[in-house]
Amino acid sequence: MRKALTKTIQVKRGHRVEVPPSERLLYTVYFSLGMVGCLTALEALHLIVLGRWNAEIFSVIAGLVGNITGIFLSQKM
After folding, report:
1. Per-residue pLDDT of the chain in tens (77 residues, 90 and over written 9)
2. Is the residue at 16 inside a domain?
3. Which residue segment(s) compose the domain that 27 sits in?
4. In 10 A of CB 47, how many CB atoms?
5. Which of 25, 59, 62, 77 is the most core-located residue (most Cβ within 10 A)?
6. CB atoms within 10 A of CB 29
7. Is 15 helix (H, G, I), strand (E, B) or coil?
8. Cβ pair 68, 33 in contact under 8 A
9. What's the confidence (pLDDT) of residue 77?
10. What is d(CA 71, CA 28) in angstroms, rounded to the nearest whole number?
């Protein structure tokens, strides 16, 4: 995960510097990925037990996936 979030910037002609992500960012991404897994399991359990789709849980999952994608895209630029 650290390698995926490492940013490479060009300082002078041909010189590139890798800037590692902060620990806070890493822990945020780990937490978000864990929450996506838990909420996906919750949605699957909800479907199995009640036999109905829960739009609220799905919207939270979609929001977390969007946040994680935004973190990766903004960190690489």
Report:
1. 888 888 888 888 888 888 888 888 888 888 888 888 888 888 888 888 888 887 888 888 888 888 888 887 787 65
2. no
3. 22-76
4. 13
5. 25
6. 20
7. strand
8. yes
9. 55
10. 10
